[in-house]
Design a protein that fits this description.
48% helix, two-stranded antiparallel sheet, 434 Repressor (Amino-terminal Domain)
Amino acid sequence: MSDVIYNRIAMLRAERGITRRQLADALGVHYQTVGYLERGEYSPSLHLALRIAQYFDVAVEVVFSNEPFPRLGSAERPRMTG
């Protein structure tokens, strides 16, 4: 089993126009911690993972996974006809 925890923090931040520093301030962590999390260099504690999910108002499994998330747009899309 891999010890890597995959996450969508950067995507969620980008969607909402939030900087690393803004997220860090809201979570009470150093802004570099957010960068470490986004790059997978640091795995969050359960408490921090839950706080991140709560901040973005999503379920924790929307933000974190033991398996890599599929890339957006990687799935075959049905073609529009007509």
